[in-house]
Amino acid sequence: MKYFRMAAAVMILSAVPTLLFSQIKPLDAVLSGYQYPFEVHYINLKSQNNDLKMAYMDVQPQKSNGKTIMLLHGKNFNGAYWEKTAKDLSEKGFRVIIPDQIGFGKSSKPQSYQFSFSQLAQNTKAILDQLKIDQAIVLGHSMGGMMATRFTLLYPEKVQKLILENPIGLEDYKTFAAYQTIDQAYQSELKNTAETYKNYQLKFYYDNQWKSEYQPWLDLIAGWTLHKDYPQVAWDAALTSDMIYNQPVCYEFKNIKVPTLLIIGTRDRTAIGKDRAPKELQPKMGQYQELGKKTQQEIPGSELVELDNVGHLPHIEVYPKFFSALYNFIK
């Protein structure tokens, strides 16, 4: 199949300066050489004629308060980046469930799969069902915010509270950016390197200021680009980009009935397809200082905590402020 053509990927990788990757280790499709901060468990899923393994971490509380919180990762990440959040929540008495969505992290990378937020939500619910968890607080970051929204709309009885941390999907990207086919998206994904990932994150996440605490999360996705499995990862990344573009959740915020908190870094300018939008529309996309307020008005009874001059990853960039907002809402 065309998305397994290795020659193009090898040519792309050979053009990257060796020095750039000197500290980055190649990582296979399921990150088997990378140790997560907590023990990894798996649930077996039969989905769309695929036999899949979905990874998750189950962090037990030091002294239980009877509450469970589920942390949902973003598109360019996996469950590992919740390490500090999970440790601190555990110390506060919460049980913490951290899935890797199918197509991400240590979970299976199916090459024939219709990705949808509804399907991912159903997969995620299967973890809670297997663990016999009736209700959970749900926190979603970036793409995980779209997933958390869909999960809450589909299974409101499962959700005690909802927290959206700089979620993407606060606007409908189809109204700004031209459509990109999955084949085009795949070719674009194949061109990714440590340098392109870092430049993207500097531009949209960190306002051109790179800190050492950002490096581990760059190393993870950059490590994929150095491994022969990368075309599998790139194909799923193309499929999930298509999912984000074509499955907006912003029109349904008004239907959320559970207590909801928005944690918004106002410097964030992340927007899917911005490079494909007309030049005059690009500056209007990803305006989180406006989108946070707009979304707070659309979700009945929701609360908004704005973090001034903070980008796309509050729980990495300004962790104490992030955790204070989170804990004050769920304690």
TrEMBL record:
Residues 1-22 form the signal peptide. GO terms for cellular component: membrane. Residues 68-271 form the AB hydrolase-1 domain. Keywords: Hydrolase, Signal. Gene3D superfamilies: alpha/beta hydrolase (3.40.50.1820). GO terms for molecular function: monoacylglycerol lipase activity. It comes from the Bacteria. One of its GO terms (biological process) is acylglycerol catabolic process. Transmembrane segments: none annotated. PANTHER family: HYDROLASE, PUTATIVE (AFU_ORTHOLOGUE AFUA_2G14860)-RELATED, MONOACYLGLYCEROL LIPASE. This is Alpha/beta hydrolase. It comes from Chryseobacterium angstadtii. The lineage of its organism: Bacteria, Pseudomonadati, Bacteroidota, Flavobacteriia, Flavobacteriales.
